Automatic annotation (TrEMBL):
InterPro entries documented for this protein: Cro/C1-type_HTH (IPR001387), Lambda_DNA-bd_dom_sf (IPR010982)
Classification via PROSITE patterns: HTH_CROC1
PANTHER family: DNA-BINDING PROTEIN, DNA-BINDING PROTEIN-RELATED
Annotated protein name in UniProt: Transcriptional regulator
Taxonomic classification: Bacteria, Bacillati, Bacillota, Bacilli, Bacillales
Domain spans labelled HTH cro/C1-type: 6-61
Organism: Paenibacillus pabuli
Length: 69
């Protein structure tokens, strides 16, 4: 399972979706889907822009959790 921590990071940085969209040049809907963990994929360029603006690492945003069998 992939867990997205974008909402937590954005809360800690006190930045909203509109601000992140403006700062990264990414579309608000795409950020909102990632924020709400409603996406089934993300481009490397998107992660790069978000990491640059939020001054974080990819592993801060995305976490891999092994499925229990």
């Amino acid at each position: 399972m992939i867990k997205v921590h974008l909402s937590r990071i954005m809360g800690e940085e006190r930045i909203n979706i509109a601000d992140l969209s403006r700062l990264t040049g990414l579309h608000r809907n795409g950020i909102a889907k990632l924020y709400n963990e409603e996406t089934d994929g993300v481009k490397f360029d998107t992660l790069n822009r978000i990491c640059e603006v939020l001054d974080c690492e990819i592993q801060d945003i995305i976490e891999f959790i092994k499925d229990e069998k």
